[in-house]
Amino acid sequence: MQPFYYLLVDITTILFPVLWSFENKLYFYSKWKYVFKAILITGIIFIIWDFIFTYLGVWGFNSKYTLGLKIFNLPIEEILFFTVVPFSCLFIYENVYHLFKDKIKQGVFYQISLVALLFLFFAGTANFDKLYTCLACIGSSLMLVYHVARKKQMNHEVFWISYLIVLIPFTIVNGILTGYFTDEPIVWYNNAENMNIRFFTIPIEDFAYNLFLLLLNVTLYERFLGRLYSQK
């Protein structure tokens, strides 16, 4: 059973969003072509990042919990991760948009983007000697700079509410991957390349990494959809 752990995490992550995509109010399945275009482009970027970090020993994978099939020296489950997680995140994002589409306001959420980008940029530049901390924080801060400068490309209210909701399944999934429920972590981290601050078993940088992943997927998804937002 152990070799299937990571694969089961992937399947469980995407199962509900796929089944609920055909719900007759949201019709999320009708947007799949935009979803998968965004996932493909983002996935290529993050898989290259993943490959380099694995090669450098920034993180790695416990063969006990994977099937042993690899692509670019990454477990097949890790490759699938960059499909199932963004798909599920975009499913949540689209549901939040559907709920808030008639009362879209930037307000305080735009200010949250400003504060977050400044905090993340400072955290990244203050930790140049820690590769994971530096790239995850600076990468997500630069994505926020883009959206602060180009206000009509993303609704900040919808995004931040989505991100807060995403943190619930994210914490569960990452808790599983980092060893909260197992004797050993499925994904291990080299603490010399991060701040060695954990939320339970999850490196704090994973929250910036997840923000970066969601921001890039949302950016591309919205661009392919062609949705623009008036500022209120």
Largest sheet: 2 strands, antiparallel
For the largest sheet, list the strands in their spatial order: 1-4
The helix/strand order is HHEEEHHHHEEEH
Level of helix content? 55-70%
Q: Structural class given helices, strands, pairing?
A: mainly alpha
Cα shape: globular
Number of strands: 6
Describe the structure.
It is globular and about 50 Å long. It has 232 residues and is mostly helical. Helix 2 runs antiparallel to helix 7. The strands form three sheets. Strands 1-4 form a two-stranded antiparallel ribbon. A two-stranded antiparallel ribbon has the order 2-3. The protein has helices spanning 5-20, 32-56, 76-100, 107-125, 131-149, 156-177, 205-225; strands at residues 59-61, 70-71, 74-75, 187-189, 198-199, 202-203. The longest helix has 25 residues, at 32-56. It is 63% helix and 6% strand. The mean pLDDT is 91. It contains seven helices and six strands. The chain has a domain at 2-103 and 155-202 and 221-225.
